Amino acid sequence: MVRLLLYFLCVVLSPVTAKAQRQVDPNDLTLTVTVEELDYVPYQQEMVLLTIHGVYKRHITLEKLEMPELKGMNWMQLGQDNWFESFVDGRTVKNMRRRMAVFPDESGSLTIGRFKHHLTLLDENNAWFEHTIESKPITIQVAPAPPTDGWWFPTRRLRIADNWSNAPDQLRPGEGVLRIVRVSALGASPDMIPPMPELTSPSALIFAHPEKRLVDLTPQGPEAIAYWRWTITPSNSVSAILEPFEFGFFDTVNREARTARISPQRVAFLKSETDAPVQAEATLPVILRSGMILASGITAFGLAFAMLTGPGQTLSTAGVRSWLRRRQLLSKLRSAGRDNNLVTVRHTAVHLADYYPKDTRRDEILRAIDTAIFSRSAGEPTASQAASQLLSTYARGGSTGPTR
Description:
Helix content: 25-40%
Structural class: alpha+beta
Order of helices and strands: HEEEEEEEEEEEEEEEEEEEEHHHHHHH
C-alpha cells in the first residue's frame, strides 16, 4: 500500500517537477536586432546594415534562426553566422552574430518584424526540450529616391578598372584586342549596376561579349562587381578611336550625385609591323650571286622595267623594291588560301592595301573576313574563297606603289 501511494505521487508530481526544471530565465537567452547608425535618412535602394545578436547562458544542442518577412525591401546575408564566446558576470557565455544588408524598395516608415531563434536546450536531467526566443520589431525611415535622368545607382564606393589583353596601340596587322572594364560598387547588389554600355567607334570592328556580374560579401556590406568586355580591331590599316562613355551614380557617403567617365582610347597597329620591309635589298644580290641565274635575274629586271616605267619615266631602286614586295605578298596570299589560314589572308590584305588603290569590293570582302574571324563560328567566306576574291580585285586594279 505504501509503495502504491509513492508511485501515485511520483506520477502526479513528475510533470510539475519537469516543468519547474524547464523554466528559462529571460535573462539567460536574449536576441536583439540593431540598425547601423546613420547621420541621414537613407534613400530607396540604399544599403542599410543590420546586426542580429544572440547571447546564450544555457547549453544549446540545436538551433535555427527564423527571419521575418521583410516587406518592401530586398536583403542579403553577409556570410555565415559567427559563433563565439564572451564573459558576462565572470562566466562564459555563447554568442551568435549575423550581419545582413537590406535595400528598401519603398519609402516611408518600414518595419522589420521579429526574428525568432528556435533552440533545443537541456534540462537538469539532461533531457532535450524546445524553447524559442524573439527579438523586438524595429522601424526604419526611408526617403524617396531623388529624381534622375538616368539609372538610379546609390553606392558607398565605386571603383572602375579599364584593362586590355595587350597594348591597344601596338597591335600586329589584323590583330584584335580584348577590352575589359571592371565596375565594383560597395553597398550595392549586382542588379543595381547600370546596364553594359554600347562601345562605339567610327573606324573599328567591335564585338560585345555577354557581361558577367557577381557579388563579394564583405563586413562593410556586399560589393557588386560587373565585367564589361569587347573585342576590338581597327577596320582600316592604321588605327581607330573608341569613343568615351559615362554613367551616373549617387555617392552615399558624400551625399552627392556624380558621373563616372571612361576616356576615349586609340587602338592602332604598330607602324614597325605594317611598314616592315621584306628584305628586298638582300633579294637582288642573292639572285645575282649565281651565274646560272643571272639570265633569269636580267629577265625579271626587264619585266619590272616594263611594268614600272613608261614614256618619260626612269627606273628607280624604290620601284623595284615595291614590285618585289607586291609579288611576295600576292604569293603569300595564295599560300594562305591553300593552307586555309583566314587570319594570314587578313594580315596579308592589310599589307597589300599599301600598294593598290582603294576598292569598294575589296572593303566588303575584308568586312566579311573580320566577321568570320571574330564571330568565332564557321561561315563565309573560307580562307580559299577570300584569297581568290581578293586576288581578283588586285588583278583588275593597277598598283600604286607604297602609300607610306
